[in-house]
DUF6056 family protein (Paenibacillus zeirhizosphaerae), 699 residues
Amino acid sequence: MKIELKVDEKILNVPRLLVILLSLFLFVYMLKMNFFVPLWNDEFAYSFIFRSDQKIASIVDIIQSQQILYNNWTGRVLVHFLVQFFLWQGKDIFNIVNAALYVSLIFVICSYTKIRKFNTMEDLRMFLTVSILCWFFLPVMGQTTFWVAGSVNYLWAALALLFFLLPYRYILENKKIIKDRWYTIISMFFLGIFTGWSQENASVIGVAFVGICLLSLFKQRIKIPFWFISGFLGCIIGFAYLVLAPGNGARKKVMYFDLSLKDQILNFFKSIIFLLYEQKYLFLLLIIAFIFYFLKKYIFSKLSFWLSLMIVFTGLLSYAAMIASPEFPIRATFAGVTMFLIALTFLLPVTAKKIDIIILILLIPLSFSMYKTYSQYHTVHQETQKRLEIVNKSIAEGNYDVKLPEYSVKGNDRVFIFDVTLNPSYTSNQHFAQYYGLNSVAIDKPTMMVELAEPTENHFQLYYDIGQGIREQDSSKAAIYNLVDGNKLYFGLPNKPIYKFRFDPGIMKADIKIKKIIISNTDETITYGAPELIKMFQPVHDIENIKLKDDTLIISSIGYDPQVEFVNDYTQSVKFKVEFEKPQSGNFQVFYDTGNGFNEGQSVIKNLIGSQVFEVSLPVKELNSFRFDLGEEINKRIGIRNIIIEEQNNEIITLNGPDLENRVSNLTQVKVDNKRREVLSLETTGNDPSFTVTNLLSE
């Protein structure tokens, strides 16, 4: 028996089959990615009724939580309702919905140039083009398409916006893709409310786009449908509820430092410059596409040109609206970028067959990028499972103060990691601990904690010399962005011997006030108060002075790259002391050789004022040779009684008398005038006198 399967090509042909297969692939890929992404800080927090210890257990709990949010934190109660709903129902359901909505975003973007059946080669080219554009240009995809809270706030809000605007886009050509029916009028009203009440940047685009459409219809004398009015009214109502929420002002007071209008505007323009740099390739492509279209196709299709210009304008408005916000994170550009991508579908020659080769070429880096992102999230998933094993084991053993290993994967644009930190009191740590019923949680790593007298918005960096000098790769960064970050800076340290620290206390001219520093690892905790710190800190660059006031160390920075160096009990160091016959004044300097010869980077200078002792700590494990510079005075007699070197293992080398005289070599601008054997008597003959002592370890 012969079985034949006949398929109507109008229903299923090769282009449509390929679109279906590609859609299924993207859906499965996104589903798997969403499965890999663990819960982060916001998910832990939103699993509870806001600002309570009660986990969400019903719709009533979610409504109660949104009421508190609206009055105390944010106006985005509709999207956060969805976040809490899916966290209550289970992340597996979210994973399926989110993967489907990402694929839907691609289809909707494709539909703005024309309503498509996705059954032609042109449709296939458009689908592939938009898929490539979305992957490479959607901002910080890790935050906006994979992360639960971020996806609902940005991907879902943008998709609702595009669905809402679609009939408005076509009515500009007097094409009515929906008719005036009671159900369309009501549906557009509520979709308008959701769009306006979802996310600020998407709301601005919605109101502006429909407003421009309204003016265009008046100009063209086109009859305005009732669904148009109801949708616009709903969007305005939603927008008003979003921006006028009491929680917006309350959150600003709790989170952000007091900013003058001038500072807020300045911060906005700094953010714009940063965003233009981060999204330079997207804007460059837009400019080229506009120029190309204007020169080649404008005369044939003016409407597409002006439509794309209008779409870009509303996208840019969403950027400009952020001037009202104290911060402008790059994820907030998501809705704006989707508008730019829609404009590109009008401007790029997607219908031309010659674009096929470009698409095929771009599929290569796309495949590599998707595979790399998949591998990184797979690693995050595996390490998350191991972490949960540590948490469960600790709870079983009655230990509710848990230390977790760091993720080996570092965050990037596509891999979002909002992890617990070194600071047990940080927001993400507290929410993690609350979710799993712990007292505290932190990253298991040696740390240096710098406690400031008060929180100050600034960026800080700690360098640690592990035998290779001061290098960028051997450093740890901390920052205070807002009041929630508190006044404690936590820096991670390596599980290696450290010979010296360099602390960069900020990136601006200011007084940095430090109460104490605590260094801790599994074996010990060392605390240094301000009186101890002032003895340790040596200014290196852009430091006017370091002073002590009321148990607070005040570092006065006079530039944008202040630096201090120090060694302490935690570092591997050698104590170096020179005892003079008489009090000395001036700049004395000791150089230590770690294999690269004597250089300024491996030296310690100290200004003596009537002191008989030059005493410093050298950031080395052991000292084999040193060079000692005797100030800058000419024809000066200097007597040295002892040079004492105390190494980490408490071994002490004392050089004095004839032994010291025999050790001295490479005398530069100085001569020995030894009439008394118990003192090394030197006389300087130039303004850079020095001598060297070598082979200390041969004894």
